Amino acid sequence: MENDDAALRAQLAAKVGALGINATGRHIFLCCDQSKPKCSTREASLESWEYLRRRLRELGLAAGGGVYRTKANCLQVCMAGPVALVYPDGICRSRGWLEKDVGQYDVADEVLGPNGCAAAYRRAMLDDVGLFDERYFAYLEDLDLAFRGQLRGWRCRYVPDAICYHKKSITSGYHSAFKAFLVERNRIWNAIKLFPLRLLLLSPFYTLARYMAQGFATASGKGISSSFVRDYSRLELAGILLRAYVSAFASLPAMWRERKKIQRNRRLGALAVFMLMKKYRLPALELAFKD
């Protein structure tokens, strides 16, 4: 009997050594392969699991490298959400905009990216993906940088204890023609540079849906579009859009070269990018009806 126990302990010790458990300093539990998926689809969770496995091996952190991973059916801690929400045509909005603060964002969490007015970036991340694209001048350049980081495998953490006061759009004016021009032009650049080809081809349809939602909001007297209509004629708004498209596509060769470099070096597969967009999606009606 003692011999059997000794043999069992030896087998257990060998298994622990083979898995590198003795060297474990961090243990990652991932909601994955759930029996009743809640926070994501089963397919998306398995893709995340495979990415985690592959990334730990690339970094030398698996099999005795100090990090151990385990599938969990459900951790029951789905809370909060992203700081930046992105619409599938390259535009975004800060999470929680115009919401009453009732503690819904009091939990630290992983997010898509920070608002550029209140962000801290690792030097290694900036060395890897580059700095803000100065061609944007203003607006959506923080989404561009955050998304480039995500495509390279970097992650962003929202910290609720960090408090910053920001006067929104104070430079250009909240409902200015200049801001509208920059936002529309820069979101086109974001789509060209960052989106997988299939999503890039679908992007114009999302834009059309957004325009329709904004038109409905304008007719209802709600949302930022209705505020623009009070200050500018419809002809002036059409002129702003036209100038934005002309400016955006005038830089198409340069943006396409940038796209090729970004897509060639990204570490996320196309499906992972789609799931990222789904997780941090910005509904068209929210985009249209909020000022």
Which terms would index this structure?
single chain, 6 strands, 52% helix, 291 residues, two-stranded antiparallel ribbon, 2 domains, elongated, mainly alpha
Give an overview of the whole structure.
- There is one protein chain.
- With 291 residues, this protein is mostly helical.
- It has two domains: 71 residues, no CATH class; 206 residues, no CATH class.
- Helix content is 52%, strand content 8%.
- It contains eleven helices and six strands.
- The strands form three sheets. The protein has a two-stranded parallel sheet. It has a two-stranded antiparallel sheet with strand order 3-4. Strands 5-6 form a two-stranded antiparallel ribbon.
- β3 and β4 form a beta hairpin.
- α5 runs parallel beside α8, α5 packs across α9 and α6 packs across α7.
- The termini are far apart.
- 25% of the residues are buried.
- About 2% of the residues have low confidence.
